[in-house]
UniProtKB/TrEMBL annotation:
CDD domains: ABC_cobalt_CbiO_domain1 (cd03225). It is found in: Cell membrane. One of its GO terms (molecular function) is ATP binding. SUPFAM superfamilies: P-loop containing nucleoside triphosphate hydrolases. Residues 4-246, 249-466 form the ABC transporter domain. Keywords: ATP-binding, Cell membrane, Membrane, Nucleotide-binding, Translocase, Transport. It comes from Ligilactobacillus murinus. It is a peripheral membrane protein. This is Energy-coupling factor ABC transporter ATP-binding protein.
Amino acid sequence: MVKLELRELTFSYAPDRPPLFKKLDFCVEPQTCSLLATPLGSGKSTFFKLLCGLYPQFGGQITNGGVFLEDQPLEQIVPFERAKRIGMLFQDPDKRFCMATLDQQLTFVLENLQLPADQITAKKQRILQELELTSLKDRQLSTLSGGQKQQAALACVLATESEIILLDEPFANVDPTSKNKLLKLLLKLKNQGKTFIIADHDPSGYQDLLDFAYRFNADHSRLIKFNLSRSTLASPVPLRWQPLKPGKLTWKQLSLTRGNKLLLKPHDLTLPKGQLGLLSGANGVGKSSLFQALCTLIPYQGNLSYAGQRPPRFFKQRWAKKVGLMLQEATAQFSCATVQEELALVSQNTLAPHYWTKERLFYAKQALGLTELAHHSVYQLSGGQQQKLQFLSVLAMGQPVLLLDEPFANLDQASIQTCLTLLKDSCHAEQTTVLLTSHQRVGITEHLDYELILEEQTLKLGGYQT
């Protein structure tokens, strides 16, 4: 059993900044699964990077204490030896990939662990079969959905067979069925002697796997154990749907193909105004592609119109004033360097200045905890902080149709509820058409009006009627 611990560790990002952790002690308990459940921006990802030796090597400084593996300072252990004992899944799966396909990436990982060449093929096949990812092994990683990328990154971590595995939001974009399968695999590995520490804002489904839950105390000097309620671990309530209201965004005989793969058979629908809808379905079925088609970013077949007007063939910015899209990757949507500059740009260009006044935008910024981050670079924010800024930026642009692709993936429950309140208020006041995707359903489904399920290339209404 590997012994990994922090001893009186004090860490800060820069000499002129206050320490994030102050004389923090923590010892990883072997062959257990622990959940790190702390608010956004509290340092979960930094904590993980310290545990696996990425910090302070690649950022920040330790001014007291340190991280020790088998009583040896972690920085004195060569990287490939560390990786054999400690593996980490990043919050952003793209940060793990440096090869074109999952098969190539797995080969790269195993070669860096100095595994003999004659063992690599068999090991790759085993891990791909265990995670049911064989069909994805030769596909370009850049073409995978967010959830598929997350599963591919998890495969690379598990392939190292590290004794301690750190998972940072491992299921943020993973559909519920795949999440349940992966949780069962983690339970199997734990029973075989693995140790897991998982940061996850959605603990539903963890009841068989979890041993401990931790949160930081007020000054980040201790990790405190606490008990999660049964309701927190339980599955979300089914979505009740209301009759659909009239709307202006309409498609007729809309179908969608990517490459040689049919994603949507010909379908007719008008999305309602003033209601919040959920687009659900397994990873890779085409939810993000459907959103991109509705924004005319990719080709589609059939007719698409807003208030009877077809999308202009040229001058695509005119259609963008009708249909707004929140991407899964926050940094791909930012236009400015700082939080203040980003929101100032939104305030200048909002299409609903009568609703998104400076006062309302200021209130929303406060409610989302972005006020104190005004002069921070958007690229130095935590994943959750970036997502809240992105959400507010898209929402306050005020397009009459909003398509939100996994807007809550990296958010804690408090932040989700704040976002939903802002979204519902603006939707009802402006009679906005809102359709979102979210594999996380806890605390969300009770606020939604209807569900569309994309399954077997068909869209159908889900949930049950009130």
